[in-house]
């Protein structure tokens, strides 16, 4: 705590102080990603905030899951119930619905978050040496202005801080004085049996499998893109189309964050609600997608070149009675410089609940395959690549990614009490191609691993506990041990331990 207090004192710029004051006036439930590879759809979910309301089931509309009223993307929350004073528990609830017109069809919703976190990593970068400690703070404040059900504007300011020994030069997503994390305008038009909507500006995008698209909540500042998103949603079918550029973050104020025109992500995702009686008592969704990722400076084998990667895939996910599944397959084509791309990924995650209660133990297994080959050679490039997925799925140490990887991980989740969730997982990882490298979460290769010609990469043991004290406040603790295999040790890398704890407070 002393480290965090010293950090706050050092970061006493007026803008940061104002943001901290806003955040300290409220909070909300935290969300921990990682060990639950096939998240069960919550029994109580809320529709996205107006005007994004549609008849298509909210959990499958491409805006992430909302539980107990809260979503990682705060604009996807619906707080119109706070219009009624009977539903307000305290002064913070008043901030969720502030009417600006007599008819109360123009209103403002405020949101905020403070996260305090400590990470300790032994043998950073899998090289023997002093441990790395990260003292991390996140402050976020947002405002959502609704002008009738047809228009809205959303803005979100964030401050990210990190300090501690052996942290090197932190990325701008980890240390940043102040950033406009999201800001967009949105319009929605309801038609009989159909809703159409369009959003323009900087925004989070998670319309896809967790390993392909994610807000990357592990970072101090979450991942956001810039551009346009357009959707059509009916009762049983939907279409979502987008055209984005990545964001190049500065380290100072809000004026040094610009569009990264070197990386462009565009495409479309469809959605289909599978009839509930298709497989007995089920709630399943089928989401085919076609995406395009263009990068002017893609890096393979130490050489940067222009890459255009096309994704043709499908996702089947949801619940079948007590079974939760999330199955994804995609083929990747295109060109890297003058070379052809032929790659594919298959992600299969499933969890079985042993009882009818929500707190019943769950047994899970996820198996993943990401093709590899050609990164350090010539001819066809067979290395698969995820646009901006959630790599903590494999390791909070960020040592693995779905490129040239085979992974198998059994897991078990128990809830001794309703507010506490404990998950235990052991993962086995191998290379798909012996002539290509082992890759980190940022897409870079572990130097020399392309020459080790060993199949086994590592084994990882992971334990995580999440205590949701209130819908606004949660605590998370996590431990990982990565046992390096010959694919790593023959190139001079070693094993590593990781321990972390953090608290999330949102309103």
For the sheet with most strands, the description reads:
18 strands, antiparallel, barrel
Q: Determine the N-to-C terminus distance.
A: 22 Å
Class from secondary-structure proportions = mainly beta
Mean pLDDT: 89
Radius of gyration: 22 Å
Strand content: over 45%
Number of helices in the DSSP assignment: 4
- Tertiary shape: globular
Q: Give the proportion of residues in helices.
A: under 10%
Low-confidence runs of at least 5 consecutive residues: 1-33, 43-54
Q: Give the strand tally.
A: 20
Order of helices and strands: HHHEEEEEEEEEEEEEEEEEEEHE
Describe the structure concisely.
The chain is mainly β. The protein is 6% helix and 48% strand. The chain has an 18-stranded antiparallel β-barrel.
Would you mind describing this structure in some detail?
Mean pLDDT is 89; it is low at 1-33 and 43-54. Helices cover 6% and strands 48% of the residues. A hairpin with a 6-residue loop joins strand 1 and strand 2. It contains four helices and 20 strands. The protein is globular. It has an 18-stranded antiparallel barrel. With 507 residues, it is mostly beta strands. It has helices at 2-10, 14-24, 91-94, 486-489, and strands spanning 98-99, 106-121, 132-147, 151-163, 176-191, 194-203, 225-233, 237-248, 258-274, 282-300, 303-320, 323-336, 339-340, 343-353, 362-370, 405-414, 420-430, 456-468, 473-484, 496-506.
């Amino acid at each position: 705590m002393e480290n965090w207090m010293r950090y706050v004192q050092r970061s006493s710029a007026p803008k940061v102080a104002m943001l901290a004051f806003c955040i300290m006036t409220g909070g909300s439930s935290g969300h921990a990603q990682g060990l639950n590879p096939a998240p069960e759809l919550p029994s109580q979910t809320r529709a996205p905030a107006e005007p994004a309301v549609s008849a298509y089931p909210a959990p499958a509309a491409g805006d992430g899951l909302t539980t107990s009223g809260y979503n990682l993307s705060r604009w996807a929350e619906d707080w119109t119930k706070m219009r009624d004073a009977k539903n307000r528990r305290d002064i913070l609830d008043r901030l969720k619905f502030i009417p600006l017109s007599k008819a109360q069809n123009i209103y403002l919703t405020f949101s905020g978050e403070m996260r305090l976190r400590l990470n300790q990593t032994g043998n950073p970068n899998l090289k023997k040496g002093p441990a790395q400690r990260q003292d991390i703070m996140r402050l976020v404040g947002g405002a959502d202005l609704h002008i009738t059900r047809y228009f809205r504007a959303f803005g979100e300011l964030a401050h990210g801080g990190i300090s501690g020994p052996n942290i090197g030069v932190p990325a701008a997503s980890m240390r940043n004085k102040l950033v406009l994390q999201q800001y967009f305008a949105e319009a929605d038009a309801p038609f009989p049996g159909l809703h159409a909507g369009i959003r323009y500006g900087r925004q989070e995008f998670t319309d896809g499998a967790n390993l392909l698209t994610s807000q990357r909540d592990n970072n101090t500042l979450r991942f956001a893109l810039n551009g346009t998103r357009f959707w059509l949603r009916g009762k049983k079918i939907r279409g979502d189309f987008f055209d984005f550029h990545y964001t190049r973050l500065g380290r100072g104020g809000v004026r040094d964050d610009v569009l990264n025109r070197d990386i462009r992500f565009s495409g479309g995702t469809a959605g289909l609600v599978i009839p509930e009686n298709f497989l007995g008592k089920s709630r399943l969704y089928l989401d085919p997608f076609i995406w395009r990722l263009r990068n002017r400076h893609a890096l393979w084998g130490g050489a940067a070149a222009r890459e255009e990667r096309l994704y043709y895939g499908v996702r089947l996910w949801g619940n079948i009675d007590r079974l939760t599944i999330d199955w994804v397959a995609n083929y990747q084509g295109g060109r890297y410089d003058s070379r052809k791309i032929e790659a594919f990924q298959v992600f299969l995650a499933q969890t079985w609940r042993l009882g009818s209660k929500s707190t019943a133990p769950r047994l899970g297994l996820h198996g993943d395959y990401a093709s590899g080959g050609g990164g350090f050679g010539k001819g066809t490039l067979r290395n698969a690549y995820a646009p901006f997925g959630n790599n903590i799925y494999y390791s909070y140490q960020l040592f693995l990614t779905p490129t040239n990887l085979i992974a198998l991980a059994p897991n078990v989740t128990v809830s001794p009490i309703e507010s506490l969730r404990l998950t235990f997982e052991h993962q086995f990882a191998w290379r798909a191609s012996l002539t290509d490298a082992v890759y980190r979460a940022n897409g870079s290769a572990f130097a020399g691993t392309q020459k080790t010609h060993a199949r086994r990469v590592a084994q990882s043991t992971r334990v995580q506990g999440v205590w949701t004290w209130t819908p606004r406040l949660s605590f998370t603790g996590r431990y990982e041990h990565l046992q390096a295999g010959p694919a790593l040790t023959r190139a001079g890398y070693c094993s590593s331990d990781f321990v972390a704890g953090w608290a999330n407070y949102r309103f």
